[in-house]
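Sequence in, structure out. First:
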Amino acid sequence: MADYWPVRLEHPNLPDGVSEVSIEVRPLEDFIHNFLEKGVTTWGQHAMRLHELPSEYRGKGIIVTLIDAGVNAAHPDLKGAICGGKDFTHAGTSLWECDATGNGTACAGVIASADNGTGITGIAPESQIQSLKLYPGGRISDLLKAMDWCLAHGTDVVQVNLSYPNPSWLIALKIRDLHTAGIVAIAPVGDTGGHVTFLAAVPGVLAVTALAHSNSSWVAPRNGQQTAGVLYTPSYAPTVPGADLAAPGTNILTTAGESSYTTVDGTALAAAHITALSALALAHHPGLRNQTRTFTRLHHLHSVLTTSSVPVTASHVTGRGIPDAARVVGMRPLFPQTPPISLQG
């Protein structure tokens, strides 16, 4: 439900003879006081130390392309960030401005939700988002066309929120084309609880897994609240190696349908944190901001993201760990001596 805590009961325990029950969900504002009137940053941003960056670090000039089920371009927090798109499932339509699942809108909110004094503020609120609709109904051939679209429309970072069952050499070759053009490709590892899905498993794609926080009701810090706590790998994240990086992906407050907000779980939300952080690095890191889109810039960004990360205890499933934003944008030296918060696998 919009503006309320979502709830899902897999196996409700109903007394014998009871066929109807009532479930009460709590308003988000019970936990995030007046967030609709003042705007907040989320726990995920604090966990990555994004709240410590100067206010002018906003990702201006960077184009992010989301390959998903569309983005709700009418949302007041997003309408200024959406700069174009295409529907690859219905030729000649603008259905890329509508979101069939809510996932694209949720990721767009993490990346570029406006700093307008209400709801949430995205990590890179002055970056621009292009929405490419690939599902429901898309095929591998449509994904190839979408990647060609990225090559022709100035994409800096592309996040691909979809998976397919078997390896594809055609997709792997197209990823090489993106790399040659200096375009960063990022994908969630999937919410399988087991294996890492393709596209994340394709060499060269930054594969991102999710982290959860031990306080299940902690959505947005308030009144100077510190980020002390424990991060752990949630049950939906893959349990085998394959991720390059980890990022917050559970209980993420973000944009939803119409003008509303919700909390969302998933490795796609974690990938959106890395996508947005990449936009900040490309816009503001002194060694990256003046570089044109080339493989050299891509290689440099990959190196910055991985070497700035703090290992998580279960490092075999969380890759290099969770990035420290201040190091990613060049504000602090790399190779931290202590983690930003207590971490647990």
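Second:
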Amino acid sequence: MLFFSNNFIAQTTPCSDEKYNQFDFWEGSWKVFNTKGKLIGTNKLIKMQSNCVMQENWVSKTSSNRGTSYNYYNKIDDSWNQVWIDNTGFSLVLKGRLIDGKMILKSEIIKSDKGNYYNQITWSKNSDNSVTQVWEHRNEKNEIISEIFRGIYKK
């Protein structure tokens, strides 16, 4: 009977380890601003499925872009993962981890006739509890090719 009891507890709280909470600083309802203070979108991130996944719901205020991502911790390889899909058909798959308080997720290398690159997105919690998100294209030497997006999230 004890086996079933412990097994039941594990199944009812499968994502209770502290690693599942590393990205919680991004959870919540946000207004997103560019570096000049202009409102560029809203984003709502909610924990779901017994704390096992965080769903993102982005709405741009400067275009018709809308998107959703699912963010989850994979205990098998000790990584954080994101799958993003938007209303233009664009999708992005990222993998990484929390490093020095920043969530850093990267795509696989994308081969292009203009040169190979990967996507890297970094989320940093700021001292005022805002969050800065930076999306970059980087080359195979980890050098920044271009900055795609920089947003400051304020609750």
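Remark: The first strand starts at residue 28 and ends at 33.
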